[in-house]
Amino acid sequence: MSEAILLREDQGPIAVLTLNSPGNLNALSDAMLAALRDVLNVLADSRDIRVVILRGAGKAFCAGHDLKEMQAGRAAPDGGRAYFADLFARCAEVMQMIPALPQPVIAQVHGIATAAGCQLVASCDMAVAAEGTRFGVNGVNIGLFCSTPMVALTRNVPRKIAFEMLTTGQFVDARRAAEIGLVNRVVPAESLQDETLALARQVASKLTAAVRIGKRTFYEQAQMSLADAYDHAARVMVENMLWRDTNEGIDAFLNKRRPDWAE
Predict the structure, then answer these.
(1) CATH no. for residue 158?
(2) Is residue 224 part of a domain?
(3) Confidence at residue 142, expressed as pLDDT on a 0 to 100 scale
(4) What is d(CA 1, CA 75) in angstroms, rounded to the nearest whole number?
(5) What's the gap between Cα 96 and its chain centre?
(6) pLDDT (tens digit, 9 = 90+) per residue, 113-136?
(7) Which residues, at least 6 apart from 155, have a Cβ–Cβ distance to it below 8 Å?
(8) Which range is the signal sequence, renumbered to this chain (predicted)?
(9) Is residue 262 in some structural domain?
(10) pTM for the whole structure
(11) What total number of domains does the chain contain?
């Protein structure tokens, strides 16, 4: 019996998801997108999982869409129009589920993250990359501009840098990816798993409800004007301040003791 295309391993409050299709560099095939959508739906309702790690099996994180599947879609009477529209809609749904997930999602990246694979990294809340990892939105090299990956990329890196990557198809290495804000940190390849887990554990140690409301507000305020963002964030902080566990956390800090949180 073949192994699942997407693996899940829970390490306490951390869910580790592994794209498990190394033969095609963990491409976002129809099956992979369906598996991601299903597991993200399950995680959205989980009260036990506080952080999610997303990684790839084999020698790469993710090489983007499955080009063989895409070419096969051209056999339809409409030349593939309906299939392509559905494919990009399904991919956009998955990419939007990640920032909408209550838990922070950390991409653990190695090898390559190209096209929709780079989009996947950009859609995660944080990313840790191994030295030597390469990132690219290189569809233009085969005549397909990475228009949907562009959406996530331009919300992570400066516009001129994103435009250069999109129009030249050139790759950036992990160090450059950190400089432009695509990843949070770069670590030796042999330390990638440990460093990513350490970051996940640090986040998981915080008050879960505070991290969840904070993540939601982070993305909400980013879409608002400056004044509206301050008004919205202030309302959220009032709500947060009135929690029992926040009162306990502040009291514990002032009295130099560990907080006794209910969660």
Answers:
(1) 3.90.226.10
(2) yes
(3) 95
(4) 30
(5) 9
(6) 999 999 999 999 999 999 999 999
(7) 122
(8) none
(9) no
(10) 0.96
(11) 2
Task: Indicate if 13 and 72 belong to the same structural domain.
Answer: yes
Tell the residue number behind the tokens 């030249």, with chain if given: 168
One domain for residues 245 and 170: no
Residues of the chain with pLDDT under 70: 1-2
> 3-state SS of the chain?
CCCCCEEEEEECCEEEEEECCHHHCCCECHHHHHHHHHHHHHHHCCCCCCEEEEEECCCCCECCECHHHHHHHHHCCCCCHHHHHHHHHHHHHHHHHHHHCCCCEEEEECCEEECHHHHHHHHCCEEEEECCCEEECCHHHHCCCCHHHHHHHCCCCCHHHHHHHHHHCCCEEHHHHHHCCCCCEEECHHHHHHHHHHHHHHHHCCCHHHHHHHHHHHHHHHCCCHHHHHHHHHHHHHHHHCCHHHHHHHHHHHCCCCCCCCC
Helix pair 30-44, 81-100: axis angle to 10 deg: 30
Residue 218: what pLDDT?
A: 96
What is the phi-psi region of residue 7: left when phi exceeds 0, alpha when psi lies from -120 to 50, beta otherwise? beta
Rounded to a whole number of angstroms, the distance between the first and last alpha carbons of the chain is 40
Regarding whether 109 and 11 lie in a shared domain, the answer is yes
